[in-house]
Specification:
By secondary structure, this protein is mainly α. It has one domain. It is built from seven helices and two strands; from the N terminus they run αααββαααα. Strands 1-2 form a two-stranded antiparallel sheet. β1 and β2 form a beta hairpin. The structure holds iron/sulfur cluster (2 copies). One iron/sulfur cluster binds next to α2 and α5.
Length: 185
């Protein structure tokens, strides 16, 4: 039985294309999961302003920016989510060193819209950010943490349903299984 495994994928394009085709052929799965992916999209957009306020106050003074290239890689759950919201995978370079500045980092911050970033970029809060959230306002802090938890739960539901589906004998897809194993092992 194929199991989900978190792993940053350095060359995700082939996997992205295979999953996209899989959803085109398995519209029952796509229809079941798309509302959940849309919910994640609107939840992320809903807290975008709060996160932006926090990061723009704290990150601007940071002397050790955490946006390294090794964090720019998508995981399988990110790829499934992007396929479901019908967004393309950002073009990725694979010639950069892991600890070089992230390929999506500009002088004005990340060039990717928040809902398209690898999810780890959205949930990661360094100590300075966490401390700032404490001072920033209890209500906003609570909204943000509750929303993050809801997003995590919904992502887990998507992954569980996706794997249940591809592991069921009638939906077995050799190509998809092979590519998932190759890219996440
Ligand atoms: S999240 Fe923290 S470590 Fe990363 S850039 Fe902002 S202040 Fe620096
Ligand atoms: S937030 Fe953007 S710039 Fe920072 S690591 Fe993630 S993708 Fe790269």
């Amino acid at each position: 039985m194929l199991k989900y495994r978190d792993k940053p994928i350095k060359e995700p394009l082939h996997l992205f294309k295979v999953i996209k085709i899989f959803f085109l052929k398995n519209t029952d799965l796509k229809d079941a999961l798309q509302p959940k992916a849309q919910k994640i999209l609107s939840l992320i957009n809903g807290i975008d302003g709060i996160i932006q306020n926090i990061t723009s106050s704290v990150c601007i003074n940071c002397t050790d920016i955490c946006c390294k290239n090794k964090h720019s890689y998508y995981e399988l759950s990110d790829i499934i989510y992007l396929c479901l919201i019908q967004e393309e995978l950002p073009t990725q370079r694979n010639d950069l060193l892991e600890m070089e500045p992230c390929q999506f980092l500009s002088k004005n911050g990340c060039i990717l819209k928040r809902y398209k970033r690898p999810f780890r970029c959205n949930w990661y809060f360094c100590t300075d950010l966490i401390n700032f959230v404490g001072e920033y306002g209890k209500r906003q802090g609570r909204t943000m943490t509750d929303t993050m938890q809801l997003i995590i739960n919904t992502r887990n539901e998507i992954i569980e349903t996706f794997f249940e589906y591809i592991n069921s004998s009638q939906n077995t897809n050799i190509q998809l299984t092979k590519v998932i194993i190759e890219t996440t092992s």
